[in-house]
Amino acid sequence: MVPPPPGEESQTVILPPGWQSYLSPQGRRYYVNTTTNETTWERPSSSPGIPASPGSHRSPLPPAVNGYHASGTPAHPPETAHMSVRKSTGDSQNLGSSSPSKKQSKENTITINCVTFPHPDTMPEQQLLKPTEWSYCDYFWADKKDPQGNGTVAGFELLLQKQLKGKQMQKEMAEFIRERIKIEEDYAKNLAKLSQNSLASQEEGSLGEAWAQVKKSLADEAEVHLKFSAKLHSEVEKPLMNFRENFKKDMKKCDHHIADLRKQLASRYASVEKARKALTERQRDLEMKTQQLEIKLSNKTEEDIKKARRKSTQAGDDLMRCVDLYNQAQSKWFEEMVTTTLELERLEVERVEMIRQHLCQYTQLRHETDMFNQSTVEPVDQLLRKVDPAKDRELWVREHKTGSIRPVDMEI
C-alpha cells in the first residue's frame, strides 16, 4: 500500500466491501468499486446509505458502449496537485514566486503525450488498478515506438487495433465455417446422387437385400449431412457474422472521443505554457521598471509602475485560469481512459467467450453427425450378418431349377 500524503486519511481505515484505494497520475487518492467500476474522490462510507462527507459525489463507470458517460461531463473535481499558481501581487518581493522556474518544473514533472505527470522521484510509487490481472487500464498510458521506426503509436490506439484485429479474426472464422458448410452440402448432394445409381441392382438373395440397404444408407447419410450444414449456418456461422455488426463503427467513435480529449489536453497545455511565458515577461517588465525608478535612471512615473503591476496581476490570473482548464481536461482524460480501457477489456473477454461457445457448438454438432451417420449403417450391419450363401442357393435353385433327373448311361 502506498502511504497517504500528509494530512490525508490513513489507509488503515477499513473501506466498504468491494472498494479499493489508489493514486491518480497526479498523486491524488481516489476510490474504485471493483465490482461496479464506480469511482469517487471521496472515501466511501462503511455504513450503507450514509455518505462519507456532505459533498460526496460518485462517478459511475457505466457499462455503456465504449465508455461514454450519459451526462458527457467530468464527474471528478479538477486536479491541482502539480500545477498550482499563486496570484501575483504588487509586492516586488513576491514577483519571483508566482510560478515555478522552468528548471524546477522539468525536475518535478515529466511530459507524456503532452500530458504533465509528477516525476517518479517526487511522488510515491503508484498502485495498479488490477495488479494481478494485467489489465488494459494499467499498461497503455504512454506511446510505443513504431517497429519500423517511423514514429510512435498511442497506447490506446494499440488497444483499438487489437479490438479490430479480433473482429477480423472472427470474420475469418465465419468464412472458414462457410467453406465447411459448402463441403458438407456438396458431399450430401454427391451421396444422394450415388444412392440412385443402378449398379449391381440385380443382385439377389440376402446379399441383394444388404446391397440395397447400403445404397439406402447413402441417402440417409446425405440427409444427415444436409441437416448438419443447415445447423452450422444457423448456429455457428450466422452468429459469428452478426456479432457486433456495428463494432468497427463503434470503435471509430470511441477512437475519435479519446483523440478529441487528447487534442483538448494538448491545447490546454499549450495555453498554460503561453500564459506562463506571458506572466514571466510581465514580471520581468515590472521588476525592470521598479529598479529603474529606484536608481532614478528613468523618468517613469508611479502611474507607469501601477500599470505594469496591473498587467502582471492580470497575467497571473490568466495563468491560473489556464491551469484550471488544463486540470479539468486532464481529469476528464484520465477518467475516460480508465473507463474506456476497462470497457475494451470487457468487450474482448465477451468476444473470446462468444467464439469459444460457438466452436463448442460446432464440435457438438460434429459428434451428433457422427452418431447419426453410425445409425445409418447399423441396418446394413444387421443384414450383412444375415447373409447365408446356402440359403440363397436354395432359394435360387427352387426358383430357377430345370429338372432333377440325371440322364441314363447308354450301352453299346
From TrEMBL:
InterPro entries: AH/BAR_dom_sf, F_BAR_dom, FCH_dom, GAS7_F-BAR, WW_dom, WW_dom_sf. GO terms for cellular component: cytoplasm. Residues 13-46 form the WW domain. Residues 32-43, 86-107 have a biased composition (Polar residues). It comes from the Eukaryota. It is found in: Cytoplasm. One of its GO terms (biological process) is cell differentiation. Residues 1-20, 30-107 are annotated as: Disordered. Signal peptide: none annotated. Residues 262-303 form a coiled coil. The keyword Coiled coil applies. The keyword Hydrolase does not apply. Residues 132-392 form the F-BAR domain. Residues 44-56 have a biased composition (Low complexity). Keywords: Coiled coil, Cytoplasm, Developmental protein, Differentiation, Neurogenesis, Phosphoprotein. May play a role in promoting maturation and morphological differentiation of cerebellar neurons. PANTHER family: GROWTH ARREST-SPECIFIC PROTEIN 7, PROLINE-SERINE-THREONINE PHOSPHATASE INTERACTING PROTEIN 1. This is Growth arrest-specific protein 7. It comes from Macaca mulatta (Rhesus macaque).
